[in-house]
Amino acid sequence: MKQGLPKIGLFILSALIVLCLAELLFRFFADSGSELSAEKIWETQRANLRKAYKNVRTEIGGITFREEKTGEEIFDEPYIRILFLGDSFTIGAGIRDHQDRFSEIAEARLNQELAGAESPRRVHIFNAGKAGSNPRLWDTYFKVVEPVYKPHFVYAIFFLRNGTRLGTSLAHQKEIIDPIREKYWNMPLYNLSAMVRFFYNRLAWREYTMQFKEILTSSYLGSPDERAVWREQQQALLGISRACQEKNISFHLVIFPILFNLKDYEFHEVEKEIQAFAENHDIPVFPLTPGFLGENDRTLWVASNDQHPNEKGHRIAAETLLPYLRTMLPQLK
Prior knowledge:
This protein is α/β, with parallel strands linked by helices. Helix content is 50%, strand content 13%.
């Protein structure tokens, strides 16, 4: 027994050293964004939106868009003009260089292909995405931009959160986030150990995610009251579609998925509901989801607490959308 005591003591000492080293690592390297906090989410997103408008902006009808000013050459006959409507996923929140957005990537690739094929045609995409917007606001942006830009095609980039009671940003969900946050803040050792705090934060995010999924799904598939926002957004999309028809503009709906759990995606039924709405009203619809399935979701986010797509996410969106965009090129020969 006495011979075993030194070994036990050595084991305990080694374990304490490992725990101390682990604690130091978590103190220095743990991401502050791992904390479930509406304030921190909003702080991150505001910083990312400031980047969005830092170098490139143009104003039309008193509304500022993250776009370069267009030259008169885009109104020459060879050009096919495409207007993108959407929210912060479309504007490229968190993307420093606007050329890394999926709209610009797709435009560059199409023009490269057309030049290689020695076609006189060229493509120009105007990205009229606006952070915090939804289809009800896109109708306003369309009415402002359309007379100036004269698009041949309009693509509404519909992010799954656009038709829900969750709002367009996680930062708007304080009533959900704060009780969960308070629960884990009061756990033992939360304020004393960075390592313990990290694991409690992961549990908080997991609990929040479960509620998020329930609300998002019921916003499309639940009771009439739960689906109220989705019905409003449907009417707004139909309004834009009718306006496009009156002006002989081809209107399309593109579905942008939730960038979460892409290896076992849980929102296929929600997307079927959106697709069914579009098909029932003769609106061509294209989901970007297949291009993202199987990806590690966290490698696509601009920050650990900001799930807007980063440069990799925008590249995937562009590559997925390109075959669909190519189908329209023969339409304007």
